[in-house]
Amino acid sequence: MNFIKLLRALIFIALFILCTNLIYASNILLNKVANNCIWLKYDSIKDSTTADTLIKFIIDNKINKVFLETYRNGEILHKENERIFESSNGYFNDIYISGNDTTSMRGYNPLQVDTVFSILFNPTSSFMAKIDSFDNIQVYAWMDMYRLWSKNFYPDNQNHFYYECPECLESDINGKSDNLIKLDKIQSLEWEGIFLSPLHPSVNQYLSDIVVQIIENYSFDGILLDYLRYQNYYYGYNEKGVDIFEDTYNINPFDLHRGILSQHFGYSQVEVDSIQTLWDNYRETKITELVQSIKTIINTDSLSNELLVSVKTSPNEAQNRWYQNWSNWLQNDLVDYVVVENHTLDFHEFNYNNKILGKTYQEKYDLDKIIIGFNSYIDNNIDLANKILSLRLQKFNNISLYYYEPYKEKINWYMPVYNVVNFNIGDE
Quick one: fold of 32-76+131-422? Predict the structure, then answer.
C-alpha cells in the first residue's frame, strides 16, 4: 500500500514538472488569466505604510480586482472617529474596527499613556485614494449580507440591527429563531453565525440601504456580495415570513414538516410536491429580489459599476440547499460575475467540480462570467499552484485567492502561486 502511494506521488510530481515545462514552452496550452482577484480583510490596512505595502503586492502580482472588506457583522467598517495615540509603548487605538466595538482596546489606557498626537485614519479611504491612480486595478466593496453576526459575544453597539429588529432574524424548520442562540456559549464548529431572514420584509430594505450608504461614501468599482444565502435548506422559517406566505397562498409551510400536508391526510404526492416547490421558490425568490434591488442601485449610481456574488460551487446544490440560484442570476444579467467557492483541499474533487462547471455552462453562456475561488488559508502554496495550473488548462480565465492575510508577513509564500498565475498575463 505504501509503495502504491509513493508511486502515485511520484507520478503526480512528474506530471506537474511536465506541465510546468509546457507552460514555458507553449502559450497554446494555457488559457490567459483575464481577472486575477484577491480578497483583502479590512484589518490589514492599519496605516499609510501598510496600505503602500499592499498596493506594491497587488501591482507586483498583476492583480486587477481587489475585494476589500467593507461591511461585516452588521456594521460598515470605518474609523472616521478613531484616535490613534503614540507613546513609548507604541501605537494604541481607542476604538476597534468599526467605531462601535469597544471590547477590544488593544491595551490602550488614557491614564497610563502619554498622548503625543491624535489623528483620523480611515483605512478604506486611505487605500482607495492611493490605488485610484492605477486605472487597471478595480476595487470592490466586499459585504457580508444575510450573516449579521459571527462572534461569540453580543454586539456592544446597542444600535446594532441585532437589537433593533430581533424579529428580522432567521428561524429554522422547528421555529427556533437565531435570536435564541446564546452567543456567550460555545457554538459548534459548523456554526456560521446569526443570520437575517430574507423572508422578513424589513431585511432586504435594510441591506439595500447599507449598499446605498457605501456607494455614496466611497468610489468603488462595484460590490461583492458574500453570504447571500440561507444557512441551509432547513432554514427560512422566519415567523413574519411564514405568516405572509400563509396569508398569500393559504398554506402553512410548517405543515409540510409536520406531515399534515401528506398522502396520509389525503393529499396526492403531486400536490405535496407542488406545495413544496411553491415554498422553495418563495424562499429563493426573496434572495433574487435583493440581487435585483442592488443591481438597480449600483447601476443608478454608475453604469460602469459591477455586481459580483460569492456562490457555492455546484449550481444545483446552491439552489436546492441554500436557495442561491446563481445560474439564473447569470443568465438574466443580474450579476456581472459569480465567484465560485471551490475551496476543497482535494485536488481531484477540485478538478472534477471545474469540469462539471465547464461542461454545464459553456453551452449556456461564456465562462468569462465565472471566477474560480481558492482558499489560501487551508491550502499550501504548491497545491494551490497545481490547482491554478489545472484551471488554466481547462480554459477558465478568472481566478480569486481567498485571502491575502494568512501569509502577509511571508510574502514569498505566494511566489509559486503567482508564478503560475502571472505567466503570460498582460504581456501584450
Answer: TIM Barrel (3.20.20)
